[in-house]
Design brief:
The structure holds 4 protein chains of 4 kinds. Chain B is an all-alpha fold. Chain B contains 11 helices and 1 strand. Chain B has one domain (about 1-315). Chain B has helices at about 1-35, 45-55, 65-85, 100-120, 125-155, 160-170, 175-195, 210-215, 220-245, 260-285, 295-315; one strand at about 60. In chain B, helix 1 (about 1-35) packs parallel to helix 10 (about 260-285). By secondary structure, chain C is mainly alpha-helical. In chain C, helix 1 (about 1-25) runs antiparallel to helix 6, helix 2 packs parallel to helix 6 and helix 5 (about 125-145) packs antiparallel against helix 6 (about 150-170). Chain C starts with a helix and ends with a helix. Chain D is an all-alpha fold. Chain D has a domain at about 275-480. Chain D is built from 19 helices and no strands. Chain D starts with 5 loop residues before the first helix and ends with a helix. Classes of the chains: A mainly alpha, B mainly alpha, C mainly alpha, D mainly alpha. Strand 3 of chain A pairs parallel with strand 1 (about 60) of chain B.
Chain lengths: ~675, ~325, ~220, ~475
């Protein structure tokens, strides 16, 4: 029954897209579309939560669509329900935010039709239960998000972003298609349950590589991440929130569904590969983020970092499964899913904030912002909560999932293989480094854009945004706080999925007193979010009260200390680049081949001293530039064949005939 | 009856920590002055400074927002909670089961996060210098700390500080190479985190060299008092952390009576004295490094921590 | 009698292959046209001989077409045209004569190898006939490819087409042979007119449009 | 009143219309008659579904060609509707004079007659004549603009076509020679239905040589790689309705002929498997055309290369063989003709309103002409193989079945698909989006045919009617 409702909701979303085409241009279109998609996604959400709480048996249904002899299979099981919650939570928030943000959209007719269709695509991917409808909805999701990225197509970089995005998306789909080809065998039984029944050969490692390429390119694993920081900022903010917060989770779902559910038990070195790619992605993602100035590009790169953390959890879980340690595998898998859920919350919140800033000031470059905390109080509080959450600091949800991942790493000495014994601690260090750098990155983001003095007139005249956007942000901020304080409930909600896919699940958390969470056994280690929050609140309140009782309460405003050089210009403040300069000098020389050059004019001349930083994206230079160069070179060389004379074309025909006759003469 | 004793012990620990922190800072300043052949301020000078600051008027920058005024309370609260959770004289107190080492370090991370933001709120370049360098130092110190926690957790089997302290007390761990590496790494991280001499000079106000002081340059009055108290609490935290893990003797074991607590307090005071003097001697014997030599310094700590963790992963006995 | 009929048919077909090789050898246009005329006459002889072996009256019609149309009409028209176009003195082979001849021999050998694989139970006349037809076809294509001048290429195409007619007549009882040879003649007529209309001198595809404008005059 | 056999009608109507149209002078009347004639042919073709005439020695209607006859007349009809508005505009700007117009409509119907005849022909000689007739009609139409390039394109098409026809004829003769000792002399030796039953006893060596000549002969008409030279210029220089019919239908009819002979070979076990031959030619055309897409400057020439690429995929699918790949090939043939003709409808109107076919001069279509622009975007997305449109289903089947059976073959296939996808999207980015250039004058284009095709392809992407699936599956099994 739940699956029926979900499919009807998805169909309604598709119909909404068509309605948007009809309504395009009229005044109420934005309000109608976003409210309708809000209610539909809430319907999805409620349906999925009920299914998960009731721990109901998986429902399947077959529609006469799709491949003629296979039909379109759909299935709602625990894994699908969890990811439906993640998808529709982000979607509901984005729709709510869209209500307000959509009013400022310059070309609504290009955004409204594709928005509900994009939501429907994502939901259908999670519900699909056979290779064809899975890939159909997967590509459909990419196609509609490509159309959204191309909404502001007047800017050349948006078009470039759209092109790179759709190219990588189709490359990923082809990889998944090949993986499904392998899984379903030559006679083409594409239904997932048929694939499950055929016990996979143990050595099906090409499937892993292909799925890593396919799902990884959509999630943003490092070598395949180049489209993400281009495409996400190009789309309107609520769409980039969806793409970052939600679409990457659909990619994680695809990886989990194919490797954990369809593939057989993984080999141990599968976990090693996924673990190392995850660790590398985490560090590279945050280092890229530190070098960026555009608000949305920083957030897009930080999505890559969080996806890396999720894949570290998944890699660990695969390693444990390979060595038949179900409890440890359950812990690592829960940590990964929990972090994916958290990331949807705080990343959507941060993208809403970035959208609010770009609407209020019309500017996305941090170097032109500053002092927004005075002019946009509500947004700045929400973004502050988001930044604290994403930097994995205790009272909030980021820390809870990070803590679980660390606990999972601490369980790994039981793994016998030497490769894992070396790589797991190394990746633990990478993870810790990524978390610390993320904190630095978000201090920079919040500090430069919201604190200090406004650097441009635009920032000075910023104003608070509309009611809907603020409510969306407030809801997500409160959710971050709640999940941070009471992580036990979320972990128990994930239990059925973990049981289904790893054979066992974490001890149920809610029965433990004081709502703390215990990874393996109470005796080992536990973390209590609520208590930490209470302690900080109590002691802060107590001190504030005592200080106000005892100490003086008078306050006086005066100019800040300027070391004797009264230069009120806001440029003297630390900018985004100068904040990142120490970290760039520490890490940048290796990772980005950073070269800083300062040209000081000879003494006596009145020339201007110039400071120049040269930063190169090694992944793009070493992987993508050569490929496109090769394609262009081949196209150039082959182009000659278009301008031959008829005689030369006849020679081609003649040679073809002679070769075929030779083949016949020699072989048959 | 037991609950009251438990509550009293926990309350005592919180008060003890609060009271001893300025004393430790005073002691270090006194010993350093003595080593430099100066009389140095009296031991209780930090208390008098705090009281003086409490009474003074808080001067705020023109551009400071509500965050600037809220941060001192948040920083102090977070640091005080973290310091209270680290066992000083007894291991098994009322809230010790929530004293997870990763949580404590992360609490310090939150304090540093808000302090850096406060530094940037004022809108002058000094705050920016402080926050930016603090972020760089933290980006290396925190992973090193996590690696140290991995070593301790792998040896003791849990990340809970009271269990680790209990395990160390029982000397079941014995002498291990990874423990030695972890100790050196922890000392290096403690020096960097508390902005002691080789990384940053706590006493200086020379704009271009200071890190921690630059962030709190604009604070005054009661806010500065809270920040100073939080800084000394943090120093005390690291000292008691090193004490309870690497020098556990004198800690009152599980549910022991009042006399064990008294012995515990005395041992703790002795440890504070030794660490204070050792730190003062170390600081006077070494000069401050250039800012961009700090990554090498902390990189060493991270490598030592990682090596220790690797050894634990590779074989049970190392 | 059976043997003698075979031998004469083989003789004529073999002669056709020989003339094709001779056409490869020519490097001046008028000579090439004369050899082509000989090629057409030989084809006509072979078709008439096939006609009286198979007692098929309509094959005589094909023979008459081959003889009349391709034996006389086309060569005369072509000779007058190359004089008008002023290209009757050019030397126009792309690749030297030596390599072309070698390639020709190799092609005949290839045709033999491919065709003689056909098992014995097929009618022996068909096997040799097809082998020769295939050789003539390949040589015709080789000529089209190695000639630079458009007229040379058309002659190559026509010799290729003669090979086809040889194969068609060799197939006993094949319907539509006459219709096909008529269709091909129409095709060739189109080509020759095309060349004449567009006055293609050197390269096949340099359509000379000025000639065209002269005819546009009377439309509004 | 004995009901006239619909088969005869399917041929008679276009022939009669051609004769009629040759007489009319006025443009308005002839374009309407052209549409009417094509509609009548469509109706008779649809009636073939209900009454299956028995195959006799000249005509045959079976599961394979029933679909292509209907597709042929449907696209013929929609193209005639499109050509009505297209030609009206061409008259206004003077590129076509009324005299040529009469010739154009007559040739259009002659071409339809040729293609229908080729599809229903049971006699392989008749099929050869029909394809030759259709090609000649197209050659004349390609040269109709009388510009230098148009004539050159027509001339090149003519010469390469003639060589191709010669090969095809030689192949047909060889098939007859192979059949003659088994089936006896005269007409039965050319009748396909008779051949298919007795082909097992034919001499395999003769059949092999025959198949090679037929593959090269009709392959020239299909536009496979080494023999493709005429196709891009014929598309670019001819009037757009002709490019639509050429790309949509003539390539399919030629490939249908190759399929007929592949069935023959498949039925004779001793003959060499045609698979590897077609697989290599398919892959070569796919990869070659994919790389040629990048440097194209003319929009119609680019879509011509995309037709070569798709024909490569289809021939590759038939080369792989097996029920799955054959089904995919047949599906892709249908979808490709519908999508490509829809694209040419859009391109025709766009090049008219922008006055140029240069890709660099057409920009920002979705802004200046939303309907045309988004129609073209949908078309290109469909041809690139993105779901939810029909071609995705066939490419899905081809790639996944190939990878599981012969992984090494899948690598060039996927490479070709990716490179072609990149080129198409790069150009689409150029002309559909960005700063609009050229005239913004509203164009009174006929949107119905274009969106009818795209709607059909869209539904086929998600749902295929069971009857069509049954036919294709039956044919896929006998295709071998």
């Amino acid at each position: 029954m739940a699956l029926g409702i979900s499919l009807w909701c998805a169909a309604a979303l598709l119909a909404l897209g068509v309605l948007a085409v009809v309504l395009a241009g009229q005044r109420p279109a934005t309000a109608v579309i976003y409210t309708a998609s809000l209610f539909l996604t809430l319907g999805f959400l409620a349906n999925a939560i009920l299914h998960l709480i009731a721990n109901a048996a998986p429902e399947t249904t077959i529609l006469p669509l799709g491949l003629p002899w296979v039909g379109a299979h759909f299935r709602l099981d625990a894994l699908a329900a969890v990811f439906l919650i993640v998808v529709n939570l982000g979607a509901a928030g984005a729709s709510l935010y869209g209500l307000g943000y959509g009013q400022h959209e310059i070309s609504p007719s290009r955004v409204l039709p594709f928005y509900p269709v994009f939501l429907a695509g994502m939901n259908l991917v999670v519900l699909a239960d056979d290779a064809f409808s899975f890939l159909l909805s997967w590509e459909f999701m990419s196609l509609s998000s490509w159309a959204l990225v191309m909404a502001h197509h007047r800017l050349p970089e948006n078009r470039h972003a759209g092109f790179v995005y759709i190219l990588m998306a189709s490359f990923g789909t082809l990889a998944l298609l090949l993986a499904f080809g392998l899984l379903s065998g030559p006679d083409g039984n594409y239904a997932f349950d048929a694939i499950r029944s055929v016990s996979q050969a143990q050595g099906a490692w090409p499937v892993l590589i292909l799925v890593l390429i396919g799902a990884g390119s959509k999630a943003g694993l490092v070598p395949l991440h180049v489209w993400l920081p281009l495409a996400h900022p190009a789309a309107p903010s609520h769409v980039s929130a969806l793409m970052s917060g939600v679409m990457t989770k659909v990619a994680v779902y695809a990886f989990v569904r194919i490797i954990f559910d369809l593939g057989g038990t993984p080999d141990w070195w599968w976990g090693l590969i996924v673990l190392s790619i995850g660790g590398g992605t985490a560090v590279m993602g945050v280092l890229y983020a530190l070098m960026e100035r555009d608000l949305k590009r920083v957030l897009a790169y930080s999505t890559i970092e969080n996806v890396g953390i999720v894949f570290v959890g998944l890699g660990l879980s695969m390693a444990f499964q390979a060595n038949a340690l179900p409890d440890a595998a359950a812990l690592a898998f829960t940590a990964a899913l929990f972090h994916a859920f958290n990331h949807t919350l705080f990343k959507s919140l941060l993208f809403f904030g970035a959208g609010a800033v770009s609407t209020a000031t019309g500017e996305r470059n941090m170097e032109h912002l500053g002092g927004l905390i005075h002019r946009m109080p509500v947004t700045s509080i929400a973004v502050l909560v988001g930044c604290v959450a994403i930097s994995a600091l205790p009272p909030l949800n980021g820390f809870a999932s990070e803590w679980l991942t660390f606990q999972a790493i601490l369980l790994s000495p039981e793994l016998p293989q030497w490769g894992l014994k070396i790589m797991v601690p190394a990746n633990g260090a990478l993870l810790a480094l990524a978390a610390a750098l993320a904190a630095a990155c978000f201090i920079r983001l919040f500090g430069v854009s919201f604190l200090g003095r406004p650097r441009t007139r635009l920032a000075e005249q910023a104003h608070e945004i509309d009611f809907w956007s603020r409510t969306a942000m407030a809801i997500f901020a409160i959710l971050c706080l709640l999940v941070g304080a009471l992580p036990g409930f979320v972990i128990d909600a994930l239990a059925p999925v973990v049981q289904e896919l790893t054979g066992s699940h974490m001890p149920s958390q809610t029965i433990i007193d004081w709502f703390s969470i215990v990874p393996i056994a109470a005796s080992r280690s536990s973390y209590n979010g609520l208590l930490v929050l209470l302690f900080i609140a109590l002691s802060a309140g107590l001190t504030a009260y005592l200080v106000h009782l005892v100490a003086s309460k008078s306050v006086r405003r005066s100019a800040p200390w300027d070391c004797g050089f009264p230069d009120p210009s806001p440029i003297t403040q630390y900018s985004a680049d100068s904040f990142a300069q120490p970290i760039r000098r520490v890490f940048g020389t290796i990772v980005f081949r950073v070269r800083e050059s300062v040209t000081i004019p000879p003494p006596g001349s009145l020339g201007v001293a110039r400071f120049h930083v040269e930063l190169r994206d090694l992944v793009w230079d070493s992987l993508y530039a050569p490929i496109s160069g090769a394609v262009n070179a081949a196209a150039e060389r082959l182009n000659v064949l278009q301008f031959l004379t008829i005689r030369r074309y006849l020679t081609l025909v003649f040679l073809a005939l002679v070769t075929l006759l030779l083949v016949l003469a020699i072989w048959s | 009856m037991v609950l009251i004793r438990e509550l009293a012990a926990q309350g005592a620990q919180m008060m003890l920590v609060l009271l001893l922190a300025p004393l430790l800072t005073g002691l270090i300043r006194k010993v350093k002055a003595r080593l430099l052949r100066r009389r140095g301020p009296p031991l209780i000078q930090p208390y008098r400074d705090l009281i003086r600051l409490m009474r003074k008027e808080a001067v705020l920058a023109v551009n400071a927002s509500w965050l600037f005024r809220a941060v001192p309370y948040l920083v102090f609260a977070a640091t005080w909670v973290a310091a209270a959770l680290v066992p000083t004289f007894a291991t098994d107190l009322l809230f010790s089961w929530s004293a997870d080492l990763i949580a404590i370090i992360a609490l310090l991370g939150s304090a540093r996060f808000f302090l850096a933001l406060a530094g940037m709120d004022v809108g002058t370049s000094f705050g920016g210098i402080g926050s930016s360098r603090e972020a760089m130092i933290a980006s290396l110190a925190e992973p090193a700390m996590i690696m140290i926690i991995f070593v301790l957790a792998l040896i003791a089997g849990s990340t809970q500080l009271s269990i680790i302290a209990e395990f160390m007390l029982s000397l079941a761990a014995g002498l291990r190479v990874s423990l030695g590496l972890a100790l050196i790494a922890l000392i290096l991280v403690a020096i960097a985190e508390n902005s002691r001499i080789p990384v940053d000079n706590p006493a200086t106000h020379l704009e271009l060299t200071m890190v921690h002081e630059a962030m709190v340059l604009e604070y005054s009055g009661r806010h500065l008092a809270l920040i100073e108290l939080a800084a000394s609490l943090k120093l005390l935290l690291y000292v008691s952390l090193i004490g309870c893990v690497f020098v556990p003797w004198g800690l009152a074991p599980m549910d022991s009576g009042w006399n064990a607590y008294v012995v515990g307090v005395l041992a703790y005071l002795a440890k504070l004295l030794c660490f204070g003097v050792a730190l003062a001697i170390f600081e006077t014997s070494i000069a401050k490094m250039r800012v961009f030599r700090v990554p090498a310094f902390l990189g060493a700590a991270l490598m030592l921590g990682l090596l220790g963790a690797l050894l634990r992963f590779v074989s049970g006995s190392l | 009698m059976h043997g003698l009929a075979f031998d004469i048919a083989h003789l004529l077909a073999g002669g056709l292959v020989l003339v094709s090789l001779m056409m490869l050898y020519q490097d001046r246009l008028p000579a090439l046209i004369n050899v082509f005329a000989l090629h057409a006459i030989l084809l006509a002889a072979s078709v008439t001989w096939q006609a009286n072996i198979q007692h098929e009256p309509y094959l005589y019609v094909t023979a008459m077409i081959a003889l009349g149309f391709k034996g006389f009409v086309i060569p005369i028209a072509l000779r007058r045209m190359i004089v008008r176009l002023g290209i009757h003195r050019e030397i126009e082979t792309v690749v030297g004569i030596g390599p072309t001849m070698l390639a020709g021999i190799a092609l005949v050998a290839l045709a033999m190898v491919v065709m003689l694989r056909v098992t014995e139970q097929a009618d022996p006349l068909a096997r040799e006939d097809l082998a020769f037809a295939l050789s003539v076809l390949l040589l015709g294509l080789l000529m089209m490819v190695t000639r630079r001048n458009a007229v040379g290429q058309v002659l190559g195409f026509m010799s290729l087409e003669n090979g086809l007619i040889l194969a068609a007549t060799g197939a006993k009882g094949m319907p539509l042979v006459v219709e096909i040879s008529v269709a091909f003649s129409v095709l060739i007529a189109f080509i020759v007119i095309g060349i004449f209309l567009f006055r293609i001198r050197e390269r096949f595809d340099s359509v000379d449009v000025q000639a065209l404008d002269r005819f546009r005059g009377e439309q509004p | 009143m004995t009901v006239i056999n619909p088969l005869i009608l399917v041929l008679a109507i276009p022939l009669g219309a051609a004769a009629l149209l040759a007489l009319f002078r006025g443009y308005r009347l002839s374009s309407r008659v052209n549409v009417l004639a094509s509609f009548a042919t469509l109706l008779t073709a649809l009636s073939l579904f209900f009454r299956h005439p028995e195959p006799d020695s000249y005509f045959l209607v079976d599961d394979l060609n029933i679909v292509f006859i209907v597709l042929n007349s449907f696209v013929g009809f929609t193209t005639s509707v499109f050509s009505a508005t297209y030609i009206a505009h061409e008259l206004e700007i003077g590129r076509l004079t009324p005299v040529y117009l009469r010739f154009y409509h007559a040739m259009y119907q002659v071409m339809m007659f040729g293609m229908n005849l080729a599809l229903v022909a049971n006699n392989i000689g008749l099929m050869w004549v029909a394809i030759e007739l259709a090609t000649l009609a197209t050659i004349l139409m390609v040269g109709i603009y009388r510009t230098h390039e148009a004539l050159e394109a027509a001339w090149k098409y003519f010469i390469l076509g003639s060589v191709g026809i010669a090969f095809a004829l030689f192949g047909t003769i060889l098939v007859y020679m192979a059949a003659q000792p088994v089936v006896g002399e005269g007409l039965p030796g050319m009748v396909w239905t008779v051949l298919i039953e007795r082909v097992a006893e034919f001499d395999p060596a003769l059949l092999n040589v025959a198949f090679i000549f037929l593959l090269l002969g009709y392959g020239t008409k299909v536009g496979l790689a080494p023999l493709h030279a005429w196709l891009p210029d014929a598309h670019a220089e001819g009037p757009t309705p002709i490019s639509a019919v050429l790309s949509g239908l003539l390539l399919n009819v030629a490939l249908y002929a190759v399929l007929r002979f592949k069935m023959l070979l498949a039925a004779n076990p001793a003959a060499i498997a045609p698979g590897p031959l077609m697989v290599t030619m398919g892959l070569v055309s796919l990869v070659f055309a994919a790389f040629m897409l990048y440097r194209r400057r003319d929009i119609k020439r680019m879509f011509a290369y995309s037709s070569i690429e798709h024909m490569g995929i289809i021939v590759f699918a038939f080369g792989m063989g097996g029920p799955l790949a054959n089904f995919a090939g047949l599906l892709q043939m249908t979808m490709h003709s519908l999508t490509k003709s829809a694209i040419f409808f859009a391109v025709g109107h766009i090049s008219q309103v922008k006055g140029t076919q240069k890709i660099s001069e057409i920009r920002g279509l979705t802004e200046t002409h939303p309907l045309l622009g988004w129609g073209l975007v949908l078309g290109v997305v469909a041809i690139a193989g993105m779901p939810p449109l029909g071609i995705f289903m066939s490419e899905f089947l081809v790639v996944s079945s190939t990878f599981s059976r012969a992984p090494l073959l899948a690598i060039p296939l996927v490479l070709g698909l990716m490179v072609a996808f990149g080129a198409l999207l790069l150009r689409l980015n150029g002309f559909a989006f960005g700063e609009p250039t050229g005239s913004r004058a509203p164009v009174q284009a006929s949107y119905v045919p274009m969106f009818a095709h795209l709607a059909l392809v869209f539904t086929a992407g998600v749902y295929l009617p069971p009857a069509l699936v049954a036919w294709f599956q039956h044919v896929a099994s006998i295709l071998g």
